[in-house]
Design a protein that fits this description.
Heat Shock Protein 90; 2 domains
C-alpha cells in the first residue's frame, strides 16, 4: 500500500514538473517570437528611413530643377516623405533608444492627436526610466491599445499614465468610448499580442471594459 501511494506521488510530481517545463518553454517561445517581430519591424523602419526616404529626397531635388509648375508634385512628395518618417519611427525604436520612454510616448500621442478626433492627456511620473527592453514592450502595448481606440472605441478622450509607486511601475490607458464585452473578444489578436508582450517582461496585464463606459488597460511591473 505504501509503495502504491509513493508511486502515485512520484507520478504526480513528474506530471507537475513536466507541466512546469512546458509552461516555461511556451513563455520562452513567446518571448522569442516577440523579439523576432520587433527585430523585423526595426529593420523595416530603418530601411524606410535610410533608403526609401533618401530616394524620395533625391526625387524632390530633381523635380525642383524642372522649370514647369511642380507645386502639386512637390506637395505630394513632401506628404509621402512625412508619412514615411512617421511609419519608420513607429516601426523602429530609434527614438526610444535616443530619447527615452517619456519623450517617445509624448511624440507618438501628439501625432495621434493631430490626426484623430481625440483629446489625449499624458502623464509621466517615473523616477528612473525602465530598461530598454521593458520600454520597448510598454511602447508596443501602448501602440496596440491606441490603435484599438482609434478603430473601435469611438472615444472622445484618451488618458495615458506611466507612474512608479511602491517599487512598481504601472502604465494605465483609459478611454471613454463604447467599451466591449471582454469575454467575447478575449481571443482577439490585438489583446493576445498585448498579453504576450506583458508576459515577456514578467508583468501583469489587466483589461477592464463595460459597454458604453469605456475601457481601461493596466500594465504592472
Amino acid at each position: 500500500m505504501l509503495f502504491i501511494v509513493a508511486n502515485q506521488k512520484k507520478k504526480l510530481a513528474t506530471e507537475i514538473l513536466r507541466e512546469k517545463e512546458k509552461n516555461q518553454f511556451q513563455e520562452t517561445l513567446m518571448t522569442s517570437i516577440i523579439r523576432a517581430q520587433d527585430d523585423e519591424k526595426t529593420s523595416i523602419g530603418r530601411e524606410l528611413h535610410d533608403n526609401i526616404n533618401g530616394l524620395m529626397m533625391i526625387a524632390k531635388l530633381n523635380i525642383q530643377r524642372i522649370n514647369d509648375n511642380t507645386t502639386d508634385a512637390l506637395k505630394s512628395l513632401d506628404e509621402a516623405m512625412h508619412q514615411t518618417r512617421n511609419l519608420s519611427h513607429g516601426l523602429s525604436f530609434s527614438t526610444l533608444e535616443t530619447y527615452g520612454l517619456d519623450y517617445t510616448i509624448s511624440q507618438y500621442l501628439k501625432r495621434i492627436e493631430n490626426n484623430a478626433d481625440l483629446n489625449i492627456k499624458f502623464e509621466y511620473n517615473v523616477i528612473n526610466d525602465p530598461d530598454l527592453d521593458i520600454s520597448k514592450q510598454l511602447f508596443r502595448i501602448l501602440q496596440e491599445a491606441v490603435m484599438n481606440v482609434n478603430k473601435y472605441a469611438k472615444a472622445n478622450n484618451l488618458r495615458v499614465e506611466v507612474t512608479t509607486m511602491n517599487d512598481k511601475l504601472t502604465m494605465r490607458i483609459e478611454d471613454d468610448g463604447i467599451g466591449f464585452d471582454i469575454d467575447k473578444n478575449k481571443n482577439g489578436i490585438g489583446l493576445h499580442n498585448m498579453e504576450l508582450r506583458a508576459k515577456s517582461i514578467s508583468s501583469s496585464l489587466t483589461i477592464s471594459s463595460k459597454i458604453a463606459k469605456g475601457t481601461s488597460i493596466l500594465v504592472t511591473i
